[in-house]
Amino acid sequence: MIGQDPGQHENILRRILVGEAGRRVQGLLAKLGITRSYVMINALLYSVYGSGGAKYVDDGPVAAYRNAWIDGIVAPGRIEAAVTFGQMAKKAWEVWKATPAGAAATVVVQHLTHPTQPESAGKTKAEREQLTATMLQGWNAALPALRAAVQHPDGPVPGGLYGSAFTDADKADIPGFDLPAGTPA
User: Fold this and answer.
1) I need a labelling partner for 96 at 20 to 30 A (CA). Which of 30, 55, 105, 125 fits?
2) Coil, strand, or helix at residue 111?
3) What is the DSSP letter of 48?
């Protein structure tokens, strides 16, 4: 999983995709039968105020550092699928794919809308509901390819897709083992 850049909660917890975004992503992983076997990184190491972070995604030193991480993650050959969340994450993947290691990799990738994009882009309740429905259509379209790519899930792969809005069953808590020691419940 590649996220965008860390927000304030991510900076505090030292883990990406926490809060509502994290629960939605853990739910997506659960729909793939994945409960432990995942790696998450961000397109950017540090948060950039506003929407200015996009200009740093293909910055030479930033890309080189991130590409070294992706090289290390993908090189052992145990990555079966990749998911990017948002435009910066998609660009980060494309920058890596343009490298020799990226060009040689045969990882199935799906570029998805960031899990909290509806809230950040929707000005009204109706807009947020429509953006959520559109996002979930995209996530549903990606599920078959991701399910086919994940050959070693951690558990049973449930069937089913998302509806037009998130339900409680579509979200999952971030496992305690994936949080820093001493994190309050």
Assistant:
1) 30
2) strand
3) -
